[in-house]
Structure formats: C-alpha cells, structure tokens
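Record pair follows.
FIRST:
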Amino acid sequence: MTSPKAPILRIRELPPILERTKQELLVRGRSPATVRIYEWGVQTLIKFVGDGDRLVDRDLIEEWQGSLVTRLNPRSRALAATGVRALLKWAANRQRPLCDPFLAQAIVSTKVNKKQPRPLHPNDLIRITAHLIERCDLRLAAQMGERPPTLRDLRDRALFHYILGIGGRVSEVLQVHRTTFEREVIRQKGGTAKEFICQPGVAGLIHQYLAARSDDLPWLWIALTPSGVVRKLDPAGVLKIWERLAAAYLVPRFTTHQLRHTAATALAARGHGPLEIADFLGHADTRWVQIYAKTSPNRLQAARADLDIAT
C-alpha cells in the first residue's frame, strides 16, 4: 500500500492561509504585535518569489532563507523564519493537511547572539533625573523667572520615571489607561498577562501630569502635536521624547529598552536575586537575567571612578 501523496502548496495560497493562521494565533493568546511580526515574515517569502504559481517546497524555502542573509540581520532573519514556520505548521496540522507536514523542517534556525544589556551610565541617569525634576518645579521656575512647566514637561518626567519603575517594554507601557494606571494588567510580549504596579512616588508625578490634561482620551500616555491635536502616544513618539531629552541634557541617545536594562541592573546592584528580577521584567526563565548581575559591578566601578577626587 502506497502512502498518500503530500499536498501541493503554491505561493498564491499563502495569503488566505496567513489570515487564518493570524486568527488562530490571536485566539491562542499571542499579542497583536507578535502576530504582525509573523505576518511580516510570511510577506518576505511572498515578495521574494513573486510568481503565484511557484510551489512552496524545500528548494524554495532554502532559496528564500539564503536571500535574507544579505538583506537582514540575524535577529530579523530569525523572526522571519519563525513566522513562516508557524504558518507551515498551521497548514500541515489541519484535518486535511494543506502542505507537507515535513516542510516546516526545511527552515533553518538562525543563531542570534544575545546582546549585553546597555543601561544608562549612572551619571547620565542622575543628570536626566535632576533636570526633569528642576524643569517641573513651579517654585524654582518662579524664582528663576523661567516659564512654568508645560504639559509636555510633566508627561516626559512622569513617563521616564514610570518606565524605570515598572521596567516595561514600550508596547506594554502604551497599553496603560489613565484611570487604572496604579494597578494595570497588560498583555506582554508572547501574549501572557502581566500586572504593572505603580509605586506611590511615581504615581504622584503621574497625577500632576493628568491634572494638567484637558482631553478625554482613555490612554495614560498621549502625544501632543504642533497643531494641537491630542492622540495616543506611539512607539515612534516615545523614541522622539528620549531623543529630545538626550539632546537637551547632553547625554548619549537612549531607548526605552535601555531604561528597562537600567532598572534591572539597578535591582541586581542592590542585591535582588534572579527570581525577583525575572518577575519584574516578565521573563519566565531566570537564565535571561543573569547578565544583569554581571553588568552591574562594571557600572558601579565606573560610577565610583567618576566620583573620585582628582589628584
């Protein structure tokens, strides 16, 4: 008795399969951001081929992955491969398979070297914090004859300290609502739930920022456009805030992920263990946080050297 012939899958059949795969991933709890990354990976395959009648086979998968080597960095190649692998597995696991069950095995995993964390230098952190507090001090502004703090000033100060205090990713922070920010359950990378708990000191800064707002948007963090239109803040807008602060306070440019590294490194430097740091960051595996314990002594040594007396 001969085995049944493997189903033939063509490029033109991928878009409808992709839509069904996306729906299942969302039902399984994957975050919309993760699903968009998977979709992007499949689209790189579709655009690479162009010919809708081309068969999706091992040769094509190998050609596609080879083309990515010169166009994408290892991390992006790994994400693209994960997206296509998820689609092929979905298609193969139907009651009536849509493709060869072994086709997903043709995708070669890309090794991604884990980057060392890049927390802000302690002196840069002190500089930014001091300037943000000074800029938002009403009494000091009156004494110095300077303009009072604006809504943008209050937002930037609150956002900076909020991210430091909860160690969240930018996609997570932007999910928070203004009425529930002190205890907010968000969906983190991978689709699992995580609770953000805002500490009293940072909550005070946020209440000052909210008191200055006149809009009725439900989101905690808003973008203030030159035209006066108020909308929900997006990741690009957050990066612009950090770029502006870095330029104003003469420190190297930084990202939200560096603030996350800064918070984790500070916890390690103060003696908190891997379990606490992993829970704080939302990591399920404590092995991911060991690098912070290795990084903090170097940063502390640099801080001590900067505070030494010149001879």
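SECOND:
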Amino acid sequence: MKKIRLRNRKGQTIVGVLEEPQGEIRGTCVIEHGYSGHKEADHIQKIKNAFLENGFITFNFDATNSFNESDGEFIDATLGLHHEDLEDVVKWVKKQEWFVKPLALTGHSMGGYAVARYAEDYPDEVDILVPVAPVVSGKLNFEAFERFHPGGLDTWKRDGIRIEKSARRGVMKRMTWESMEERLDHDLLPDADKITIPTLLIVGSKDESCPPDHVEKLLKKISSKDKALKIIEGAPHTYRNEKDLEEVKHSISSWLKDIIE
C-alpha cells in the first residue's frame, strides 16, 4: 500500500492509495467515492477489495471538496468538479509505469456518475465499468428528492442552503442551492449508448437518492451486450451494515470472475 499525492487541473492536491494484488495482475481499477465521501469509507473499501482480490491494481482516491485528505471545502463541491477529478486521476493513472490494462472504473453515487461519464466520453479507454448507486442525471436527482422529500426543493431554493449532519461521521454538511442546481447540467442518458463494455450497475432497493427505477433507465440505454443490474434488497443509498457491504462485494467479485476468466 502506497499513499500518493497528485494535482488536479486546478492545482489542488488529490490524495490516493495505490495497492497491488497478491499473485497475478489482471488489470488496473480506479475508484471514486461519492458526495461528502472519502476513500476509507466501508463501502468504498468493500468495492476496492472486490477488485483487489480479483487481481486488479487499485487506485482509490479522495476527491477534492469533501471531508477527507484532498484539498478543497465541501461547500464548493459540485457534480461537475467530482467528474473533473476522476478525469484528471484516470489520465494520470494511465501514464504511470505500474499501469496495466484492462482499465476498470468504479464509483459510488457522484463517483458512479463520474466513471460512467468517463466511459461515455472516452469509450476506447475503459474496459470494465461498475457504477454503484450512480447519479443518472440532475433532472432525475431533482425528481427523487421531491419524491422522497416533498417540498424540500422549494425550501432549499428559498433558503439558499441545506444543512444536515452526516449519519456516520457527525460532520455538518452545508450544501448550497447552486451546487444542487448545477446538477441539471449533467445527464448520462443521451450518450449511454456509447457504453459498449462489460458493465455492472448496483443499487439498493431503498435508495432514495438514486432509486432503482432511475438506474434501470440507465441500464436500458447502455449498448453493452454484457450488462447487468444488481439490486441489493433493503439497502439504502450508502451501504453501512455488514450484510449490505458483503453483498456489494460479493456481487462485484462474482461478476468480475465471469468477465476475466
């Protein structure tokens, strides 16, 4: 395990961890967490370990503007900046002497959007794709928020900011209306047909941020002949209990075995 620091296009420091598998190396995987996340989160570690144990070199990094080791303030976080970090990291990874094809990308929530977007923008560079509870589009994100929090968007827009306490870490998350509105600039659906590589989508049946019906819309648009959707029964947006965590890891691991063996 090796901690590495690099800089994004804005000159901010991004901190990541490079790990190599025991035995045969079968590829390289880049992992990105979601909004307010960090590379050490339990669900991110499970996702990473699924790839690591199947022979992939992993680079698991902290996006900027979150509660982690990388630069930036959470209040400045946007979906677009999250994607830019992923893009900068992948381009850096591909230049390293330890990089080995095939390239796999995986991420949770905003990270799930970012890796799918990269696969759309650079279809010849990515070989394996695993978006977990991905943000499919800003428009659908608004729809989900209003579905599960009726009137919440109007209140958020009126106040200009939404403040909530992290369930696990206890930090106060200050989210501007501008950061929510910025999501309307993003949509995976129009170019999803460019994704022709093996793709596994994962979502919890109780996900209120990126619900299963939204992820199913993305699945239908993806052109890959080797695509699958795994719904974790009873799981919310972020996986915290051991059952959900192990099911995510097992789902990725068993699917990878079919892909690479």
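COMMENT: The radius of gyration is 17 Å.
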